Amino acid sequence: MSDLSYFMENDDETLRLEIKTDLDNVKRQALWAGLRPGMRVADLACGPGKTTQLFHDLVQPQGSAVGIDGSANRIAHAEKTHSPNGPAFFCRNLLEPLDDIAPFDFIWVRFFLEYHKTDAFQIVKNISRLLNPGGILCLVDLDYNCLSHYGIPERMQRTISRVIHVLENKEDFDPRVGIKLYSFLYDLGFENIDVMMEPHHLIFGELGAVDEFNWTTKVEVAVKKFQFLLDEYENGYDAFYDEFKKAFSNPRRFTYTPLISCRGRRPAGG
């Protein structure tokens, strides 16, 4: 397996993850997947713990939630931010065994597999072993991530596509992992598999503050690392950044990404 790496790492990443997480949507998705009171739930790649706290509240009474993330900074933030009587948090490499803190009745994996194109299926296979027989695994990720825009300059669209292509090859990023989630659970013999697809990054009209911060940070972190791809811009990154800000703030622009949620049960005899 590859080393755990995260190309979006930056000083504001904890804030970005907190701001962009819509708890109403997460709650709806988790309840659809089968999260119920009394369960022991694992929130893998939990980030700053916002979703873990939600899951802890949803499984009461008698349930519990565990948040696991590879970032020591984000785990420290989670432990500081959330109640000591709430979730438990662990800083662990998610590509290594987690058997010592298993088993679980419900495992939630959202926006993690997209950063591990090569090992995504093996990760899911390893995670599935942490479930109790009959336990639920819910995978949530994007398809055609960051690539669906209309009303932006053609050279900007070309540049974004080139950046994503380089991220695939150099950072093991998978912009199309969402379309693979069903096959992962199917190939592992999960039962009662179901799929839900809905829009994500649905942006039109006036640009809201959350989308502005989220997407501006994406550009500042991801695109800035690959300035050699900005050859269509005479002044390089600064010119691209100015064009991006202008185009993305234009209320005519339309952006979306499909979000795919896939749930399944580990066989009772599995």
TrEMBL record:
GO biological process annotation, one example: methylation
GO molecular function, one term: methyltransferase activity
Keywords for the protein's UniProt record, in alphabetical order: Methyltransferase, Transferase
Pfam families: Methyltransf_25
Residue ranges of domain Methyltransferase in the record: 41-135
Gene3D superfamilies: Vaccinia Virus protein VP39 (3.40.50.150)
Transmembrane parts of this sequence: none
UniProt-recorded name of the protein: Methyltransferase
Species of the source: Desulfosarcina alkanivorans
Classification of source organism: Bacteria, Pseudomonadati, Thermodesulfobacteriota, Desulfobacteria, Desulfobacterales
